[in-house]
Design a protein that fits this description.
The complex is a heterodimer.
Chain A lengths: L1 H25 L3 H10 L1 H11 L5 H23 L5 H22 L8 H6 L9 E4 L2 E5 H29 L1 H6 L4 H42 L3 H26 L3 H34 L1
Antiparallel strand pairs in A: 1-2
Helix pairs in contact in A: 1-7, 1-9, 1-10, 2-4, 2-5, 2-9, 3-4, 3-5, 4-5, 4-9, 7-9, 9-10, 9-11, 10-11
Chain B lengths: L9 E10 L2 E11 L4 E5 L6 H8 L7 E6 L4 H4 L3 E4 L13 H6 L14 H13 L15 H14 L4 E4 L8 H16 L3 E5 L3 H7 L2 E6 L1 E7 H4 L2 H8 L5 H12 L7
Parallel strand pairs in B: 3-7, 3-8, 5-6, 6-7
Antiparallel strand pairs in B: 1-2, 1-4, 8-9
Helix pairs in contact in B: 4-5
Classes of the chains: A mainly alpha, B alpha/beta.
Chain lengths: ~290, ~260
């Protein structure tokens, strides 16, 4: 049963993050995803201090709020302060992250939250924290939280698909026909923040970036349609979490780490496969001429 | 020479746009009538694109205002279409030519609505108008620069607007296609639509446009092309930069000099 919950947790994390990842990759903003995932740390710690429990709604909202503040600051330094975008990302998220590290070390005695857990997650323990209503267990809390986030992602992305894709492809034109580029930017960033915060306990702040980027980038290599890219990225993400679980089980290592590694391996296979395919086809095309 | 018109379709009043405190448009003030093709011309860095962007509300305006159909852009957005410069987007985006043209219909849909068959038909029809129907399902990164440009024009046509603002729509387009598209635009103006085009080639301007706006940071001239296309005004717009060759061919044309001796 543990294996089932762990794999399901992994699948829920990658499903949300690969959908969002597709838009991040196309907007050339995966590093902003990275920034958010690190910058939410102080939000998580503070909310945890106030509420005294993990997975609370307060924690999600507090941390997601800091995630949004991060994207706002990145834009602000870049646009108003004339700082290069990558520099502005570097400045913003390291400052927040460092603040989070200080907070954790400072409150280390009162907080049941260690740095390893925040950075690398502990997906193996998801089933130890069940949702209790009365005396009845309703499955792990993390599953409920992640399902909720996944449904929210779907509830925004499916109806907002066209607006999001147009503001990604051609923001000037989108603005010209009256679709708010800023609004959709922050909608996307809110979802990324939410997903990151909800996933941090299971896969950690660093590995969630792998799930935001790698499945989407893998899918991007294979398709010429945005819809297919999103579906393929979910497929690659799911494949990576299942493979990763058994890889970790076999090697007795970190499960989240193995899932991220598996997605990296999938990317490598697809990348090489595509190159070989192209070379083979070029050769046959040449020999036919 | 700035000719103002009665009941203008486009009214630009004392428009100033600055970028990092440097003015890129200074006190632009002109009006355009309905049912014409107007060219906006001037040297590189004259602010032509910025002018179009300011008309579309894409750059913050320092002072002055733009009125389209006598109203703010917000009120008449559905009647205005915009063709951005091709270089402003990343063509590696996973979409087909038809997908991009369909984007022209998004303005008419609610944000959660899917395009219907009628929208697809319009999009396909617009691709046909620019001679791109054979490439409808081609991924946009696999199109040539000129073909990508035509996809952008088709997307704008799909909006079925009354006013079209086009930022260098002919960049990289071959001459046969360019002529065909100009014919199409002329047809549209005869139906009462208005087209404003940022253009580079002085040679073809005379055949393409009814009206010409010459600018170089400031407005130099605006009026019917026959009256604006003079050596003095061109000189004033392009200054010393006016290509010697262009001047020479221009003079040759005007004075019926044979290019080669017979």
């Amino acid at each position: 049963m543990d294996a089932f919950w762990i794999i399901l947790t992994g699948i829920l994390v990658v499903a949300s993050s690969s959908i969002l990842g597709c838009f991040l990759v196309l907007r050339k903003m995966t590093m902003v995803g990275d920034a958010i995932s690190h910058a939410v740390l102080p939000g998580i710690v503070l909310a945890y201090l106030f509420s005294g429990e993990r997975n609370s709604v307060l924690m999600i909202i507090g941390a997601a709020g800091i995630g949004l503040l991060t994207t706002f600051l990145i834009e602000f330094f870049h646009k108003k302060g004339n700082v290069q975008e990558d520099a502005s990302i570097g400045i913003t998220f390291t400052s927040f992250f460092a603040l989070g590290v200080i907070l954790i070390s400072y409150f280390a005695e009162n907080v049941d939250l260690d740095q390893d857990c925040v950075l690398y997650g502990e997906i193996a323990y998801v089933s130890l924290d069940p949702l209790l209503i009365g005396n009845i267990e309703y499955g792990p809390k993390a599953i409920w939280l992640l399902s909720f986030v996944f449904l929210m992602v779907l509830a925004v992305i499916i109806p907002g698909y066209r607006s999001l894709s147009l503001t990604t492809f051609d923001p000037n034109y989108a603005q010209a026909i009256g679709i708010s580029v800023t609004l959709w930017h922050y909608v996307l960033m809110s979802l990324v923040s939410l997903t990151t915060v909800a996933s941090f306990e299971s896969v950690g702040a660093i590995l969630v970036v792998a799930f935001l980027t790698v499945p989407a980038a893998t899918a991007y290599l294979l398709t010429e349609k945005l819809k297919n890219m999103i579906l393929l990225s979910i497929l690659f993400g799911v494949l990576a979490s299942v493979l990763g679980y058994f890889l970790a089980d076999y090697s007795n290592g970190s499960i989240a780490g193995a899932m991220a590694t598996a997605s990296g391996i999938l990317f490598g296979i697809v990348f090489l496969g595509k190159r070989l395919y192209n070379r083979y086809h070029r050769l046959t095309a040449v020999s036919q001429n | 020479m700035i000719q103002q018109v009665e009941q203008p379709l486009i009214e630009i009043h004392d428009l100033t746009v600055t970028y990092h405190r440097k003015p890129v448009l200074w006190g632009i003030d002109f009006t355009l009538p309905k049912g014409i093709i107007a060219g906006i011309m001037g040297p590189n860095g004259a602010g032509k694109s910025t002018l179009i962007k300011a008309m579309m509300g894409l750059v913050p305006v320092g002072s002055g205002y733009v009125k389209l159909f006598g109203e703010d852009l917000k009120e008449v957005r559905a009647k205005v279409s915009y063709v951005p410069q091709k270089e402003s987007v990343d063509w590696d985006f996973p979409a087909s030519a038809l997908d991009v043209v369909l984007m022209g219909r998004y303005g008419k849909l609610k944000w959660f609505q899917r395009p219907r068959k009628a929208d697809r038909d319009v999009a396909m029809d617009c691709l046909k108008k620019v001679g791109m129907e054979a490439f409808a399902n081609r991924q946009i990164s696999q199109l040539s620069g000129g073909q990508q440009q035509r996809v952008f024009i088709a997307r704008s046509l799909a909006q079925d607007a009354d006013l079209y603002l086009m930022d260098e729509p002919f960049a990289g387009v071959d001459i046969a296609t360019e002529t065909a598209i100009v014919e199409l635009l002329k047809e549209m103006t005869s139906e009462g639509k208005t087209v404003v085009v940022v253009h580079h080639d002085l040679q073809s301007a005379e055949n393409y446009f009814d009206w010409l706006v010459l600018m170089n940071l400031r407005l130099v001239a605006s009026g019917p092309i026959k009256e604006v296309m003079t050596k003095e005004l061109l000189q004033e717009t392009y200054g010393g930069k006016l290509n010697i060759l262009t001047t020479v061919t221009d003079l040759l044309n005007k004075q019926d000099f044979p290019i080669r001796e017979k």
